[in-house]
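**User:** My hope is that you can spare some time for a protein that puzzles me. I have put the entry right below:
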Amino acid sequence: MVERDSNVVHRLREAQQRILMGAPERIEVGMTSVRGLAKEADVPLNWLNRQYAPEKDAFEAAVRGATDGPLTAREAELAERVAELEAEVKRLRMQSVERRDRGDAWKAAAEHFIREVALVKTELAGVEARRAAAFKARDNLKADRDAAVKAMQEAVDALHAYEAEMQPGHSWTPRVIGPDDRA
């Protein structure tokens, strides 16, 4: 049998009373664990578990009995207030989740529109480049047309001059070919 010291048993019982009364000297109020009892009684935890198991069991039973017993009016009031606060915390957490989800949805929508705007800007730059190339091609075609019309006018003038040389009595006037010509 394991040796038990009556002085240690006495310290454990006093520590148990102080803990259950809510006035411990070495630990925090509300610390109702076996570790807290060992610390309050200044006894090594392994001694409490091996040599002083009956005192440990008595402490655990007292703690269970203290928490299972009827509540005082103040304890009932506080328990009701705790329940109200827990319900409020739960409601606020749900509200926070909803707001975060809405924020995430707005963020996703904003990112989508930012990508769309960038895509439209890219397409617009391509359209502007094609437009500039089309105007340049149009100007080149106009220049080619004007050069062709000038060359044709010179050829017509040369033909008329040649015909006039071939027919000596006929006077020749140059004829201008243009948009109003109905030849």
